[in-house]
Amino acid sequence: MRARSPRRRVSQADVARAAGVSPALVSVVVNNRVDGPIRISEATRSRVRQTIEELGYVPDPAARRMVGAASNVLGVFTYESVFPLGGENFYREFLVGVEDAAEEVGRDLLLVTSSRRVERRSLYANGVNGLRLADGGLLIGSDADPDEMHRLIDEGYPFVFIGERYIDGCELSFAAADYIGGTRAAIGRLHDLGHRRIALLASHHDPVPGRREGYRQGCRDWGLELREVEHTLRGVAREERVAEIRRILDDLLADEFTAVLTQSSHHARLVRTEARARGLVLGRDLSLVDLGGDVHAAGPGELTALDLPRREMGREAVRLLLALIDEPDGAPYRVWLDCPLVDGGTVGPPPA
Q1: Which residues pair with 160 in a beta bridge?
Q2: CA pair distance 136, 129, nearest whole angstrom
Q3: How many other CB atoms sit within 10 Å of the CB of residue 17?
Q4: Across 56-62, average pLDDT
Q5: Which residue spans within the chain are E strands per DSSP?
Q6: Residue 303 has pLDDT above 80, yes or no
Q7: Strand partners, 87
Q8: What pLDDT is stored for residue 235 in this prediction?
Q9: Is pLDDT at 67 greater than 60 in this prediction?
């Protein structure tokens, strides 16, 4: 039996022959142009549309982008791994929000995760913009390449970050969580409970703006001493991380600090493990707040934490991207969403 040959893609030339018009006229109808040099009667437009439907013609998105026509596709590029090993991961809710908002406005999505042939994820892994087939792009991840951001801007390509991002020389649009307000509110909550010595477990490499500033604002507002404990927990072996957490807790407890805020959920779990190893009860002997933004990172209800509105950030990012596509001169488009504190039982009054 002979192998069945794949069906040839229907072209605009096929539509033109079947409708008895020129390919240029078919292009005008496909791209819904009404202000060009070619004038078409409504009867001819209807005939071409009917022929398109009968032949099953589907416009080539790459060709449409080449002539500046909208593809009705929104791109999503991630600098991080977004596919979970289990049922959940940190980025899933962003993508759910993006999908919800795109469906509401009738847009398709193109997900680009970069080539593995490069050391780091790159939007230009193959030398060209990986989102070029889409009308605009949504970017996820903290490891964005500044050179790529400048290149996108030079190309006039519209893009919006999910998460707050700043790069020198770029006016970036983003949908972000209000980490400043959320962290400041956490300080206020601890102060109301009676805490007067509250430390921040901080890192020089914090890709999320706002948490350190929120801590400083909260301490100033309530007249508290600043204690930002710089750590080197990133990129070291687990034994080294445990040893450093042990040293940090030794110093804080010796100085009678009764509450600790961490910039990441991973570091909050390290503090929790070390506190338990010492026989400390979180929420009684020591209060702990996770500013990492993922209340499920340690299991629901196990850590008092900021709740990052990830799904709504994805939805808002789509709305901002559509606004940017329609009115690029209005950039940058930015929105900050509330980031509430969710009680997980690791915050209580200071020990007597």
Answers
A1: 138, 173
A2: 11
A3: 14
A4: 63
A5: 73-78, 108-112, 136-140, 159-162, 173-177, 198-202, 228-230, 259-262, 287-290, 304-306, 334-337, 341-342
A6: yes
A7: none
A8: 59
A9: no
Nearest to 77 by CA among 169, 172, 160: 160
Distance (Å, whole) CA 102 – CA 309: 18
Torsion of CA 37, 43, 45, 48, to 10 degrees: -130
Q: Is 192 in a helix, a strand, or coil?
A: helix
- Distance in angstroms (rounded) separating the CA atoms of residues 134 and 60: 12
What's the rounded Cα separation, in Å, for the pair 218 and 107? 42
- Asked if 318 and 154 count as a contact pair (C-beta separation under 8 A), the reply is no
What's the CA gap between 115 and 258, in Å, rounded? 47
| 7-11, 237-241, 251-255: least confident range | 7-11
Angle of the 12-19 helix axis to the 23-30 helix axis, nearest 10: 110
In a 3-state reduction of DSSP, which class is residue 302?
coil
| Tens-digit pLDDT profile for residues 319-342 | 999 999 888 888 899 999 999 999
The residue with tokens 């030079």 is 154
- Virtual torsion, Cα 332, 337, 341, 342, nearest 10 deg: -130
82 pLDDT above the threshold of 60 = yes
Question: Which residue is listed with tokens 């022959």?
Answer: 17
Cα 294 from Cα 186, distance rounded (Å): 15
pTM of the model: 0.76
Contact between 350 and 256 under an 8 Å Cβ cutoff? The reply is no
Instruction: Examine residue 332 and say whether the peptide bond preceding it is cis (omega within 30 degrees of 0).
Output: yes
